[in-house]
Amino acid sequence: MQVAMDPADAKKWFGVAPPDLTLEVRAKGADWVYAYMRGFYKDETTPSGWNNVVFDKVAMPHVLYTLQGEQVLNHKTLELELVKPGKLSPSEYNAYVGDLTNFMAYMAEPAKEQRKRIGLWVLLFLGVMFVLMKKLKTAYWKDIK
Ligand code: HEM
C-alpha cells in the first residue's frame, strides 16, 4: 500500500515511520487490529497526546478521533470511558472499524478464499484416493497369507 508521506519525514515527525498496512493483519491478526483501532485514549504524557490500551506509548496519533470521540482510561477499573462523543455512536464506530479491519484482512491476503476453496477439493481428492488405494491394497494382498 503506497502512502504519500515520505518515510524520512514520518520518522522526524513521529519518531518512527508508520508500518506497511498491507501486511498488518497477517503480522498481528484481525482481532488485534480491531482492538487497536478502538483502543486509543487521551494521555497528556505522550508526544501525540494519545496512548493505546493494546500498544503502550504508541507513536501513532488517533487519526479517527473525530469519528470515535475521546476516550480516557479509568486507572481504577482499567476500562475506557468515552468522555467526548464523536460523530459516530460507539456501535456505529465499532461497525466502521470492523469494516476497515475486514478490508485490511482482505488486502493482507486477497487469495485467501481461493486457497480455502482449492483446499477443500484437495481434501476431497485425497479422501477418494484413500478409499481406492485401500481397495487396491486388499485386492493385491488377498492371496498372500
Ligand atoms: C485509518 C488509517 C490507519 C490505520 C488503520 C492505521 C493502523 C496502524 C496500525 C495497526 C499500527 C500498528 C503497527 C504495528 O504493528 O507496529 C500503526 C502504527 C503507526 N501508525 Fe497508523 N494507521 C492509520 C493511519 C495513520 C496515520 C494517518 C498516521 C500518521 C499521521 C499513522 C502513523 C502511525 C505511526 C507513526 C505508527 C507507528 C507506531 C509505533 O510504532 O509506535 N497512522 N498504524
SSE blueprint and pairings:
Blueprint: H1 7-14, H2 24-28, H3 30-38, E1 40-42, E2 50-52, H4 65-68, E3 69-74, E4 79-85, H5 90-108, H6 112-141
Antiparallel strand pairs: 1-2, 3-4
The protein binds protoporphyrin IX containing FE.
The termini sit apart by 65 Å
Let me know the average pLDDT: 95
Bound ligands, each once: protoporphyrin IX containing FE
What is the helical fraction, as a range of percent?
40-55%
> What is the N-to-C order of secondary-structure elements (H for helix, E for strand)?
HHHEEHEEHH
What does this structure look like?
A two-stranded antiparallel sheet has the order 1-2. Strands 3-4 form a two-stranded antiparallel sheet. Strand 1 (40-42) and strand 2 (50-52) form a beta hairpin. The chain is built from 6 helices and 4 strands; from the N terminus they run αααββαββαα. Helices cover 52% and strands 13% of the residues. With 145 residues, the chain is of the alpha+beta class. Helix 3 (30-38) packs antiparallel against helix 5 (90-108). The longest helix has 30 residues, at 112-141. The site of protoporphyrin IX containing FE has 17 residues, from helix 2 and helix 3.
